[in-house]
Sequence to fold (187 residues):
Amino acid sequence: MTALPGSPRGGLLPSARPRGGEAHERLGYRGPSACAAAGITYRQLDYWARTGLVQPSIRPAHGSGTQRLYSFHDVLVLKIVKRLLDAGVSLQSIRAAVTALRAADLAELAGMTLMSDGAAVHRCSSPDDLAQLLQDGRGVFGIAVGAVWNDVESALAQLQAEHVETGDAVPADHPADELARRRNRAL
Fold:
């Protein structure tokens, strides 16, 4: 068994389950929305962008007063990094996981499961891969990227977004907010 590239132990092939990525590619999220969806502080977001852990792929900050713009893929990676940090995974392993997550297509990410023993992060695509990890007697925890995907998608639907091409604001979807629904219908 191998772990993710750059991690102390190498990488397994992920399974692929296609998801609707076209809409995700047309929208961008500013820092506050990315923070809210990922469950991190703005200070963490800023630090991770400045140190290169997770940088915005749509629009980086260029000096004072500019706004970073994060893609759905970026926010998904932010939330996974937060979960890995909360679980005590080493920064070296997290950096390797971020590199692998960045290189994966959105469709590939939806079916991926990340497993970690704290020292390394592994991609598992079958029960046999998990059994092989457990066979060594290591304690592991898992992150089903598809479940994180759903969490991020639900959170972002209720937050401010903007069209990548035009910069136009996309109103948040608040299903319980009757006034917002009427206002959006009038537009």
Q: What stands out?
A: Residues 72-86 form the longest helix (15 residues). Confidence is low (pLDDT under 50) at residues 5-22. The two ends are 54 Å apart (CA to CA).
